[in-house]
Amino acid sequence: MSVAGSYDCVTKTPMGDQKSVFTITDNGDGTFSGKNAGAMGSMEVENGKIDGNTLTWTMNMTVPMPMKLEGNATVDGDTLTGSVNAGAFGAMAMTGTRQS
Q1: Are 46 and 57 in contact (CB under 8 A)?
Q2: Which residues on adjacent β-strands are paired with residue 83?
């Protein structure tokens, strides 16, 4: 099953739960592109890689402060489970459900 799709996600951050829509586009060559769009704006996926059902990526956050985020997640059916590493803030749990 493809990992591609849009997922309704919640990330547990120091500022509380942040809801977003994480969009994954499978580029067909072991990489993916997409974005994570939430209340604080949208971040483009960079260096997106697909290994089976495991995803790794980076994003450059600008709000509320500039920071490079490193993400990893596993897609199991319609469920996405992973974390986003936010430098000094550490890893933040991220979960999502694929939109139908």
Answers
A1: yes
A2: 72, 93
The range of the structural domain enclosing residue 85 comes to: 5-98
The pTM for the full model equals 0.93
pLDDT in tens, 2-17: 899 999 999 998 889 9
Distance in angstroms (rounded) separating the CA atoms of residues 26 and 30: 8
CATH number at residue 84: 2.40.128.120
